[in-house]
Design goal:
about 80 residues, alpha+beta, 4 strands, globular
Length: about 80
């Protein structure tokens, strides 16, 4: 699984580095560090909707510390579980 977090200007101002830290923490907590390729991009083309992440080919906009857990569960844990099964 590939996860990319936008760290471009707009997403940076909206807290993308905090999202990167949360992502690393949640990946470790769920034992997914070796199963996920985490990277950053300087723009995912959704500047007005950030913080934006890309999970494989799916774009997820509006990621924040407040909704991160729900987004992680829905878009990453659920997909990782179906890949492992």
């Amino acid at each position: 699984m590939n996860i990319c977090v936008c760290v471009g200007s707009s997403c940076h101002l909206k807290g993308s580095y905090h999202i990167v830290r949360l992502m690393k923490e949640y990946l470790k907590k769920n034992g997914l560090e070796d199963k996920v390729n985490l990277s950053a991009a300087f723009c995912l083309g959704k500047c007005t909707d950030g913080v934006t992440i890309k999970v494989d080919d799916r774009i997820v906009c509006g990621v924040s510390p407040e909704n991160f857990s729900e987004i992680f569960d829905r878009h990453i844990l659920k997909k990782a579980g179906s890949v492992q099964a």
